[in-house]
Specification:
Blueprint lengths: L25 E2 L2 H11 L6 E5 L7 H5 L4 E6 L2 H10 L6 E5 L13 E5 L5 H9 L8 E7 H8 L6 H9 E9 L4 E2 L6 E8 L5 H16 L5 H9 L4 H6 L13 H13 L11 H8 L2
Parallel strand pairs: 2-3, 2-5, 3-4, 5-6
Antiparallel strand pairs: 1-8, 6-9, 7-9
Helix pairs in contact: 6-7, 6-10, 7-8, 7-10, 7-11
The structure holds S-adenosylmethionine.
Length: 287
């Protein structure tokens, strides 16, 4: 992990936060951009998607890795300028569309992006929920508070726990506001996300059912959560997962739920309900 303080461009009094009606803040630190790209180590065989390419601060160095790059930008003026500027890059495709509806590839891909903060949650939902394709690795610049919520040891909501149980989500570094132009009022963070080995369908269903039961009844012990989710009692497997039957649900880390789901599935414990009851879904959506 880098220890040097990220350098932004030299700061002057003219750089103080100013009204910015477009709400767009461009990365202006080569050190941050390089670190972001290096975190995913794109190679020529890779497909990399960048959401919100703006004026290409990340796109241009991304194309130099030799990977195939798809830059997704909603603003037609930004997209047009980027196409013109990087006209000679045969490995780049600029797509003018909304990141929230861009169809994600089914095959292997990476994401490298400084994402528009207004769509952080909806974009992460698309990237980290099964359904479409999910990235093998993602290097993202996100708002600082959002990064902290995503990386707490015991996430606050069932949805965050579901993501953290299936992906390693690491807060790599703070990205101070002065690394952007214009300077925003909040700091940002560099996140690194890596997909864990994929779960079987049964493991996924058991994991989801347990997480939802846990977040509906956070004071319950793990034993009750397992019973609510699978209809069985498995104290031996709870112990094997490094928990005790009485461990409170709101102290259990996502990786521990994942381990327990693996053990329960391997020993043939079915989940009780389908993927998710309506009440659980409502709770999971609360953010
Ligand atoms: C934070 S800026 C990042 C720009 C550039 N990547 C950089 O780091 O300098 C976000 C960019 O996302 C674009 N954008 C905003 N909402 C979007 C959406 N829903 N889909 C795709 N692009 C979007 C904006 O036009 C802007 O160019």
């Amino acid at each position: 992990m880098p220890s040097r303080k990220p350098r932004g461009p030299r700061r002057t009094t003219r750089d103080a936060p100013r009204p910015n009606p477009s709400g767009v803040h461009f990365l202006a630190s080569n050190q941050i951009i390089d670190g972001l790209i290096r975190s995913c180590a794109p190679a020529p065989a890779d497909l990399v998607i960048e959401f919100g390419s703006g004026n290409g601060a990340i796109t241009a160095p991304l194309t130099r890795t030799g990977a195939r790059v798809i830059a997704v930008e909603r603003d037609p003026a930004f997209a047009r300028k980027l196409r013109t500027r990087l006209d000679d890059k045969e490995n780049l495709r600029v797509v003018t569309t909304d990141a929230r509806t861009f169809p994600l590839p089914r095959k292997d891909f990476l994401v490298v992006a400084s994402i528009p903060y207004s769509i952080s949650t909806s974009l992460l939902r698309r990237l980290l929920n099964p359904g479409g394709g999910t990235p093998r690795k993602a290097g993202l610049i996100v708002e600082w508070g959002f990064a902290k919520r995503l990386t707490t040891a015991v996430p606050r909501t069932a949805e965050l726990a579901w993501w953290a149980a299936r992906f390693d989500i690491t807060l790599v570094r703070k990205v101070p506001a002065h690394c952007f132009r214009p300077i925003p009022s909040v700091d940002s963070a560099q996140l690194f996300i890596e997909r864990k080995p994929q779960l079987s369908k049964g493991e996924g269903r058991t994991l989801r059912a347990m997480i939802e039961a846990a977040y509906l009844s956070p004071r319950h012990g793990v034993r009750n959560v397992v019973t609510a989710a699978t209809g069985t009692r498995s104290p031996r497997l709870v112990l094997a997962a490094g928990l005790t039957p009485g461990t409170r649900a709101d102290t259990v880390k996502p990786a521990q739920w994942a381990r327990l789901a693996h053990l329960l599935t391997a020993h043939g414990e079915p989940q009780r309900s389908g993927d998710c009851s309506p009440a659980c879904s409502r709770q999971a959506r609360k953010r």
